[in-house]
Design brief:
Bound molecules: 2'-deoxyuridine, zinc ion
Helix content: 25-40%
Number of strands: 5
Number of helices: 4
Protein name: Cytidine deaminase
Shape: globular
CATH class: Alpha Beta
Radius of gyration: 14 Å
CATH architecture: 3-Layer(aba) Sandwich
CATH superfamily: Cytidine Deaminase, domain 2
Number of domains: 1
GO molecular function: cytidine deaminase activity
InterPro entries: APOBEC/CMP_deaminase_Zn-bd, CMP_dCMP_dom, Cyt/Deoxycyt_deaminase, Cyt_deam_tetra, Cytidine_deaminase-like
Structural class: alpha+beta
Catalytic activity: cytidine + H2O + H(+) = uridine + NH4(+); 2'-deoxycytidine + H2O + H(+) = 2'-deoxyuridine + NH4(+)
Organism: Salinicoccus sesuvii
Length: 135
């Protein structure tokens, strides 16, 4: 895994992802930009549903989109929200990142004024369960 040192242009790209959110119920728009190992951009947004639990978060939208297109090596994921402080991925998204990304992949959390917090997948889900736990 190459470390994706945060690039300013990722801010513009993650806002594009966020603009695609479908949030008639919460109006809380989340964008996720998945940067692939070869610097492609995969966009994810939260897609809500009248049956609330059927909602898909932005982070999982991006990861499922990448895998569906046979793209599996990532440099980083950037997540943006309009919250006061950079918002933190939900437990389900952390578990899916644990499954599909390297433990040391950077996760950049960004708020509406561009404050960026860097964590890794392992920071967000320490001692997380994975296939290794079934060996
Ligand atoms: O990790 C998360 C947490 C929440 N949301 C979305 C789901 C829902 O549409 C809205 C409010 O929970 O935010 C995400 O996209 N990612
Ligand atoms: Zn989530």
């Amino acid at each position: 895994m190459q470390d994706g040192i945060f690039k300013e242009e990722w801010l513009d790209e993650v806002k594009v992802a966020q603009s695609r959110a479908y949030t008639p119920y919460s109006n809380f728009n989340v964008g996720a930009l998945l940067v692939t190992a070869d610097d492609q951009y995969i966009y994810g947004a939260n897609i809500e549903n009248a049956a609330y639990p059927a909602t898909i978060c932005a982070e999982r939208s991006a990861l499922v989109s990448a895998y569906s297109n046979n793209i599996k090596q990532f440099k980083a994921i950037v997540v943006i929200t309009d919250s006061k402080e950079p918002s933190s991925p939900c437990g389900t998204c952390r578990q899916v990142m644990k499954e599909l990304c390297e433990d040391d992949m950077p996760v950049y959390l960004v708020n509406h004024v561009g404050k960026v917090i860097r964590r890794t997948v392992d920071d967000l889900l320490p001692l997380g369960f994975s296939g290794k736990d079934m060996e």
